[in-house]
Amino acid sequence: MRLVFATHNQGKIKEMRAILAGLALEILGMDDVGIFEDVVEDGKTFEENALKKVKFVLEKCKDIGCPKGHPMSIQPWIVADDSGLCIRALGGDPGVYSARWAGEEASGEEIVRFTLEKLKDVPEGKREAHFECVLALVSPAGETWFFHGRVHGAIALKPRGAPHPKLPYDAIFIPNGYETTFAEMPLDDKNRLSHRGMAFRKLREFFEEMK
């Protein structure tokens, strides 16, 4: 089966391929199937944004003239995620705006710097946060499922480690029970703990039960 992940983010695609390794799935990103536009993520919840991405790819698939051998010549499954960092001291921000609350064109370093500036007067012990992820999956028949993941932790006082591409918050998020940020962990350890890892393991279980 083919599974199209509705993202251009190579860091996310790498994570998903690692988590779903061994399944009879060909995992493709939007770029792989000729969809280069971005989805306007204006939903009020993670569920709304994830579902919007899935529907966007579905519509684009209909518009692609799929010659034999094209990745979309066989109707694929489509999955999309929306995820974000929710910081208690900031009333749950940035939440669904995590990718753009420092500005639409802000770099990863600028996002981290902006976040830490917001928390400059918040001491250790008061910097609780959680990462949340929602996956929306649609089958070739149009059926839809949601899978959720959440991990609790705290925001570090300064960036630590080298985050994976387009995952800037990994450098400042310390999961509960650990002293290292996500960015300081081996990818396998991060996938085991992370919100996205939790949601994708539920997706993996879903596909395994289909056998």
List the helices and strands and how they pair.
Blueprint: E1 2-5, H1 10-19, E2 26-29, H2 46-63, E3 77-87, H3 108-118, E4 128-138, E5 144-155, E6 173-175, H4 187-193, H5 195-209
Parallel strand pairs: 1-2, 1-3
Antiparallel strand pairs: 3-4, 4-5, 5-6
Helix pairs in contact: 4-5
- In CATH, the topology is named Maf protein
Radius of gyration over alpha carbons? Answer: 17 Å
| H/E element order | EHEHEHEEEHH
- Widest sheet: strand order? 2-1-3-4-5-6
Describe this structure in words.
This protein has helices at about 10-20, 45-65, 110-120, 185-195, 195-210; strands spanning about 1-5, 25-30, 75-85, 130-140, 145-155, 175. Helix 4 packs across helix 5 (about 195-210). The radius of gyration is 17 Å and the shape is globular. The chain contains 5 helices and 6 strands. The chain has a single domain (about 1-210), classed as Maf protein, CATH 3.90.950.10. With about 210 residues, it is an alpha/beta fold. About 35% of the residues are buried. A 6-stranded mixed beta sheet has the order 2-1-3-4-5-6, with helices on both faces.
